[in-house]
Amino acid sequence: MLSQTFPFHQGLPTIKLSFTHRVSGKLVARQLLVDSGFTGECDLLLSIDDCRDFCISFARSKEVGGALTGTHRLVWVKCVLPELNFEKSVRSLEADLSTMSLADGIDGLVGLSFLTQFAAWGGRENNGQDQWDFFLER
Amino acid sequence: MSTLDIDDEIAHEICNRFEYSGQHFDEGSFVAIEGGRVLGVGGTFEEAHEILRRSGVPAGEGMVCEVERPCRIMIR
């Protein structure tokens, strides 16, 4: 089984995902907050600029409730986790991140639909030193 | 109304009724839509995306709609 760990960011579980840029074709990394309370048929939430840059095609817009409300556009983006041999096109919600209280250095959210594509995921203490990692196993 | 808005309306109709313009769509399939027209249906996102590309739709344009029952996204 393949496994990858990501150090918590300011005490919060995060994943560093890479995306294929629509124009350059290069991989661009983003640090995303893991939010298992982000549910529904959508994997990620990214900024409007990132959705424009990473969009490979549009997806059907959807109603959103909770921290965001209203109808939001969705795009398909290609994301990569090389250590897990994971490369997949997933749906991302497009959102104005300035309206959300995200910590500095956080570029968006990873939701439950994304996490459940893996065999195991969660947080664990790193070497008993009160340092935590988020892990994904595939 | 923009072309993207029209494509989005078609996608909503497909997911609400599993049908559009007399054509039935199976739940779980992926529909390629562009310019107010259904261009084809694939069993995966990649198949539907390939239909867009083969139809000359530039990268980053066109819509791929997964046929699914409408449900709300929640962010708690």
List the helices and strands and how they pair.
The complex is a heterodimer of chains A (about 140) and B (about 80).
Chain A (H helix, E strand, L loop, with lengths): L2 E5 L6 E7 L6 E8 L3 E2 L4 E4 H7 E12 L3 E12 L4 E10 L12 E3 L1 H4 L4 E7 L4 E7 L1
Parallel strand pairs in A: 3-9, 5-8
Antiparallel strand pairs in A: 1-11, 2-3, 2-7, 5-9, 6-7, 7-8, 10-11
Chain B lengths: L2 H15 L1 E2 L2 E2 L5 E5 L2 E6 L2 H10 L8 E4 L6 E3 L1
Antiparallel strand pairs in B: 1-2, 3-4, 3-5
Sum up the structure in keywords.
heterodimer, A: 138 residues, mainly beta, Cathepsin D, subunit A, domain 1, six-stranded mixed β-barrel, three-stranded antiparallel sheet, 2 helices, 11 strands, 8% helix, globular, B: 76 residues, alpha+beta, two-stranded antiparallel sheet, 6 strands, 33% helix, 29% strand
Give a structural overview.
Chain A has 138 residues and is mainly β. Chain A has one domain (15-133): Cathepsin D, subunit A, domain 1 (Beta Barrel), CATH 2.40.70. Chain A is 8% helix and 56% strand. Chain A contains 2 helices and 11 strands. Chain A has helices at 48-54, 112-115, and strands spanning 3-7, 14-20, 27-34, 38-39, 44-47, 55-66, 70-81, 86-95, 108-110, 120-126, 131-137. In chain A, the strands form 2 sheets. In chain A, strands 2-3-9-5-8-7 form a 6-stranded mixed barrel. In chain A, a hairpin with a 4-residue loop joins strand 10 (120-126) and strand 11 (131-137). The longest helix of chain A is centred in the middle third of the chain and has 7 residues, at 48-54. Chain A is globular and about 45 Å long. Chain B contains 2 helices and 6 strands. With 76 residues, chain B is of the alpha+beta class. Chain B has a 3-stranded antiparallel β-sheet. In chain B, strands 1-2 form a two-stranded antiparallel ribbon. The longest helix of chain B is centred in the N-terminal third of the chain and has 15 residues, at 3-17. The model of chain B has no long low-confidence stretch (mean pLDDT 96). Chain B has one domain. The interface between A and B is medium-sized, with 29 and 27 residues.
